Amino acid sequence: MANKITVGHVHMSGCTGCLVSLADNYEGLFKIFDDYADLVYCLTLADVRHIPEMDVALVEGSVCLQDETSVREIKETRERAKIVVALGGCAAYGNITRFCRGGQWNQPQHESYVPIGDLIDVDIVIPSCPPGAESIRNVCVMAYLLLQGTDEQKELAAAYLKPLMDLAKRGTEACGCDLMYDVINQGLCMGCGTCAASCPVRAITMEYGRPAIDRDMCIKCGACYAQCPRSFFNFDVINQFEGIMEAIDGAMGKGGE
Amino acid sequence: MVLGNYKSVISARAADAEILKRSQDGGIVTQLFAYALEEGIIDGAIVAGPGEEPWKPEPVVATTRAELLAARGTRYTISPNMMLIKEATRSYGLDKVGIVGTPCQMQAVRKAQLYPMAMRKVPDKIALAIGIFCMENFPYQGLEAIVEDHCNVKMESADKMDIGKGKFSVYTERGAVSQIPLKATHKYEQPGCHVCLDYVANLADVSTGSVGSPDGWSTVFVRTKNGENVWSKAIDAGYFETKDIASVKPGLDLVTKLATDKIDKNKKFVEARATFGVNKGLRNPYI
Ligand SMILES: Cc1cc2nc3c(=O)[nH]c(=O)nc-3n(C[C@H](O)[C@H](O)[C@H](O)COP(=O)(O)OP(=O)(O)OC[C@H]3O[C@@H](n4cnc5c(N)ncnc54)[C@H](O)[C@@H]3O)c2cc1C
Ligand code: SF4
Ligand code: SF4
Ligand code: SF4
Predict the structure, then answer these.
(1) Which CATH class is domain B138-189?
(2) What pTM did the predictor assign?
């Protein structure tokens, strides 16, 4: 396809779980790379050494401040990519790398790991550890429509991506406490249990209709807050769920099954 | 968007007398899930099953008719059904999941499908989402206060609870009825309900409630292609008795009125929150 967008996967300090999650779209991954996006950079999958110009950079992992290469590469990513996506809890919020304190073989001085948003402006955040394969797929399809679609598609894609852009502006810290601060303390929780289902480490249980968070277990991935229907709920987009799901399935070659 | 998008609306009740015996209204939820389970349309459904304390529901993944039947009836308190949405596909290994829930829970389902950040393998496994109409919900302790303090009935002696015609009613095992004006229950409502802008579960595949239809019958909105597909098959197979909604009293006008009242009132509340403090507001989750 002529109008493919260019995408790169930039690897900072992460476990490659986000990349595996992208790959977990299985044949959908091939569809994305066949029809919508060229993978122009990805240390694991493509032999390209230097960060190139690209439309979308999917950044996985946090930045180690003691690692000059990482600091340089995150700045290059910002300069060379039109849209920077913090892919996953580490890039967005630090996640488990927040708890590093150095002393590890063989770079004991590596101790400060910060979410990429502490060093550069981030356009879009996809929280969770790892983010669901389908959420990465949806963002890829929407990014494609935003850059290459018709006016109508551009409008839909912008509306779809807005909450994820707002999350990027919201800051670089998130943990289970955000449910307390921004949902329960604000009188918004209605006890659906989505947060408990979201937590990858099962730090949340529902007690008498409200989330109870085991803060020692929380790894700060930001999933629970982002997935809560009372953190954001975009009526313009979500009310059209049927059409959008069909459109995404169609785009992924799954229509009419 | 008062009544949401829908393809058809009808008054109905389950054909199965055993289901009707303890269902809240027309047994739509239990009958439709039981049918879908039999036909392999779903492998199981997340329902509000009985919990340890009387009238405190516990979400369960029902994979048998018996489990569906055990979860019949309305518990007017929070059942965090979404809690099991990933569990159902992982631990239970279901490929086709049914889920019942209040309008807000249907919103959670659809957000999870469109923004599945922490919902790996969920989006394409929602096979049937049934919504139940909902004006408000109560925290468990709130329900306890209503039933025990106001209605003077021990939670464990209550046989059925119902809201209708401006009253909250508790029916006891020994056949007594205790009623209080709905007004007396308002202060026990769950705060999060006051920003809720949906009465009839606009985002479900099929949504149902008692309002609009005669006692023992339910009003049913068929909303999505998927919902229409399942519902029409169930009708063809003879699982429901139906009546034209235009022929029943009080009919759709009352549904429209109650939905409009709820949404208008709560919209005002969302607006009022914007200036709750001194030049400071509380968060609006919809922008
Ligand atoms: C909090 C609340 C408020 C409601 N308000 C209204 C109203 O204002 N107007 C109206 O017409 N109808 C209302 N309903 C819906 C109504 O009470 C019935 O649930 C609905 O008509 C379905 O009845 P049925 O006979 O078809 O279902 P049944 O066959 O009896 O099955 C009911 C299903 O709902 C599930 N369920 C029960 N309690 C809950 C809960 N708290 N949360 C999630 N799932 C649950 C059960 O597990 C079961 O699967 C409300 C329900 C609830 C839970
Ligand atoms: S997801 Fe949000 S609304 Fe639902 S129980 Fe958790 S905090 Fe409450
Ligand atoms: S409580 Fe769980 S989901 Fe929420 S931020 Fe912590 S680890 Fe993530
Ligand atoms: S009133 Fe709204 S928020 Fe409250 S339980 Fe019902 S649907 Fe949920």
Answers:
(1) alpha beta
(2) 0.97
